[in-house]
Design goal:
With 143 residues, the chain is α+β, with helices and mostly antiparallel strands. Helix content is 35%, strand content 20%. The C terminus is likely disordered.
């Protein structure tokens, strides 16, 4: 699901991929439902391609969003309730205990939490990739 959700540099919010045209994508804002083009020169990245640095290895964003959902019970995170950066980092440490504190900035944490809130508000609550695709080749090998 996160593969079709896009972040576009310079544009606030998240966008859902609707269609592809020549040298552009047609995207729909999750918050407003307004459709706009995203051109080849725009920096567009799929949320499915983003990972968070940890001490061991990078953790896909979908897994981090699932951990936030488990911690909040599927409710939005009140970002304004954090008194300072240290409080926000402490909260994120509860969600992802081994995140790399030197390479993950407070702005990155704030962006992940705001993306989580936008996705929840849009009714998107399934963040982890399905493992069914991985099971299909195993069935063929058994034959």
């Amino acid at each position: 699901m996160l593969k079709t959700i896009l972040a576009i540099s310079g544009k606030p919010g998240l966008f859902k991929l609707v269609s592809q045209g020549k040298n552009m994508l047609i995207v729909e804002a999750l918050a407003t439902g307004k459709r706009t083009p995203a051109y080849a020169h725009d920096k567009v990245i799929s949320l499915g391609d983003i990972a968070i640095y940890t001490v061991e290895e990078d953790v896909p964003l979908g897994n981090v969003l699932e951990a936030i959902k488990a911690k909040t019970g599927g409710q939005p995170v009140d970002i304004k309730a954090f008194e300072d950066d240290a409080a926000m980092r402490a909260y994120f440490k509860e969600v992802l205990p081994d995140f790399d504190e030197e390479r993950v900035y407070t702005n990155d944490i704030k962006k992940v939490l705001s993306w989580y809130n936008l996705l929840i508000a849009a009714g998107i609550t399934d963040f982890a990739e399905k493992e069914e695709e991985e099971d299909a080749p195993k069935a063929e090998e058994a034959e």
